[in-house]
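Here is one chain, start to finish.
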Amino acid sequence: MKNLKKTLALVLALVLCVSLFAACGGKNNDAPQKPANTQTGGSTGGNEEDAKVYRLSLSFHDSSQAIKTKFVQSWADEVREATNGRVDITVYAGGTLAAAQDALDAVKQRTCDMAVCFTSFFPGQFPLTEVVSLPLTGIENAVQATNVLWDLWESEKALQEELSNYKVLMLYSNPNNIIGTTTPVYTADDMKGLKIRVSSGTPADMAVAWNATPMSISSSEIYQSVQKGVLDGYMIDLTGVNAWSLYEVTPYYTEMPFYVAPWALLMNQESWDALPEDLQEIINGLSARDRSVAFAEVSEKEADETRELAVTQYNATVIHPDEAQLDTFRPAAKEYMADWVEKYGTDSFDAQAYVDKTLELAEKYAA
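Its structure:
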């Protein structure tokens, strides 16, 4: 019995010694390892650079369930996978990080690292980007417009300078705007006196030129405004018709190569510069023209599905003006283009040549 007690005492003493050794700094091989650095930007050098996670924020005003938001999210997921988790982009949808009209300032001030920006919300800031928005240029769809934009971007220094404060990840266009109305519109004369919801820029100016009354109303208010007779219609692309269920209140859709509007996925330049070159290279490979065209294709698919839904389930009438009817819209469109050339032409920038090149590219990429 005495030997058993001595043995137990010896065991307890050994356990106590091991515990004291560990507390005093003895190495424990089973201890959890130090987590990877999760800073945004910056560099500590050495091998730690390969373990650092760059957490970036992306602001988008569309809802989380919108098709375009899902596309942006899939892109962010691809970036994360391609960089082995070293670039982790969180998409803040529904304007939760920055409202649509504030997205550009949010990128400038680094409130977010990147944002999807709709150029029409920033009048006068991107005129050369918005050359594809000139009316009746022959641009009929988002893919065509996106290819035109990228050819201009790759060849025109003036356009590059216009966006030089940002890292341009994508440049693309929305589908062609339709004129959705409660009464049919075949000619410019049919626009006379109609109260039409428009965005700023080309749609607002052309509504005036065609003797309609342009009205600035948020997209979310179009539905009720048409119901109540405050509006007779709107100019918006079919993805907007889908987003706000406008096929329920407007039975007529006039489609012509009227107006597309550029969008851009822009990144804060400092946020971009903080990324190591290998990560920049990966992100560039997942962005630029190819991904922009893919984005445009997603938008066009949604537009096609919306048109079919409006016709088959809501008995909508889609109007495609013939050449004689289009001729009633063209004089005001030509005058608008001439005014644009006069407004933006300078001694160092040939605005007419820029427009002519745009028209040539529109024909080149016509379906």
